[in-house]
Amino acid sequence: TFSPAGGAYNAAQNVTISAAGADAIYYAIGETPTIDEEHKYTAPIAINTTGSHTINAIAVKAGYANSSVASATYVMDLPYANIAAFIAGEPTTAKSLTLNNAIITGVDGTTLYIQDETAGIMIYGLASLPENAAPNHSISGTIVGKYSLYRHQHELVKPNNTTPIDITNVTISA
């Protein structure tokens, strides 16, 4: 039994595997597990990267045939943890970018220029700016948009052509 069950998640998961009566469980991600110490299940398995991850497991009990392979697939759509990761991922569909004390480096109309410890990006396509959005203020929270490169400038743009970027779930502070 896999817990949580396989499925689609937007937050990291720690997966536990159990098999009633088994002496041991062996697992592998994306391949058939082998019965060796390297593949022996001893602790929850962290699934913490974007993509599809299939855990395959076999239960073993002395004096019995090994179980058939049990599988659970976890499709992870995790927020990008910083600006450099968002730029490297070049998402062409709406994805989340988590900002932790990024700095606003500029404001132009409804466009924000921000930078964290990894890179800088322009947030283009905001419905409006909060009154306290100003250079040298910090910004934290999650923003949803897709990647664009415009005149050599990395941009986080509207998730689609009609929906402006929503920054109501971010905190801006002086």
Number of helices: 1
Roughly what fraction of the amino acids lie in strands? over 45%
Quick one: biggest sheet?
A: 5 strands, mixed, barrel
What radius of gyration results from the CA coordinates?
Answer: 22 Å
Could you list the spans in which at least 5 consecutive residues all have pLDDT below 50? Answer: none
Net shape: elongated
Distance between the termini: 49 Å
Succession of helices and strands = EEEEEEEHEEEEEE
Total count of strands: 13
- Main sheet strand line-up: 8-9-10-12-11
Give the proportion of residues in helices: under 10%
Question: Average pLDDT, to the nearest integer?
Answer: 93
Structural class given helices, strands, pairing? mainly beta
Question: Features of this protein?
Answer:
174 residues; mainly beta; five-stranded mixed barrel; four-stranded mixed beta sheet; 1 helix; 13 strands; 47% strand; elongated
Folded structure, characterized:
There is one protein chain. This protein is 4% helix and 47% strand. The mean pLDDT is 93. By secondary structure, the protein is mainly beta. It has one helix at residues 83-89; strands at residues 2-3, 7-9, 13-17, 24-29, 45-47, 51-60, 70-76, 95-108, 111-115, 120-123, 138-150, 153-157, 170-173. A five-stranded mixed beta barrel has the order 8-9-10-12-11. A four-stranded mixed beta sheet has the order 2-7-6-4, with no helix packed on it. It starts with a strand and ends with a strand. It is elongated and about 75 Å long. A hairpin with a 4-residue loop joins strand 9 (111-115) and strand 10. The longest helix has 7 residues, at 83-89. It has one helix and 13 strands.
